[in-house]
Amino acid sequence: MAPPPRPRLKPAERARIAEIFERFEAAESDPRTELSYASPYELVVAVALSAQATDVSVNKATDKLFKAADTPQAMLALGEAGLKTFISSIGLFNMKAKNVIRMAEILIAEHGGEVPLDRESLQALPGVGRKTASVVLNELRIEPAIAVDTHVFRVSHRLGLATGKTPDKVEAELMAIVPEAALVRAHHWLILHGRYVCVARRPKCEDCPVADLCPSRAAFA
What we know:
This protein has helices at residues 11-27, 40-49, 55-68, 72-87, 93-111, 119-123, 130-139, 150-158, 167-177, 183-196. With 221 residues, it is mainly alpha-helical. It has two domains: 40-139, Endonuclease III, domain 1; 144-220, Helix-hairpin-Helix base-excision DNA repair enzymes (C-terminal) (Endonuclease Iii, domain 2, Orthogonal Bundle).
């Protein structure tokens, strides 16, 4: 997908957006996923398992799983039933087990047991949609991408960075207005900000590094 054209923002708004990401960078220069992984394969499996589940619950499961199966070959040998014993505490584990095993089969048959690191091939894998592919490509610093989950969606709207009503529309808006130097890290800054500061019910505006730049702050005063 071609990058969206950058809109013509008023100088003051462009400066506000730049300042937001400069402050995020000052607080955390190299944000990373909180999912535990040691290889691209472990990363794509962990991200696939994280759908509708917390990173904490996924890490708890994969801590044991990856000791038993950290390659497509080992995962296939484990089998669907064996995999379920490791991930039964994670939501939608039956479907996820089926997808992870099928993914292992395809990686072995079509990619020599390696994870393909291009968007088209990633998204063709079972259980890997656009959001999962974006997380993997962005985390591995292969492609700047902003995967829009509930945290990113909420923070983007509160900060006045996006108005879209769907994740895809918010993603397109963010990709168009986030400063280019910040694109590869914006996903993590926004998700972590939403997870720990700009939380859903009672955002911690008193702890927010960009509160004075936020058009929604008055609503929570």
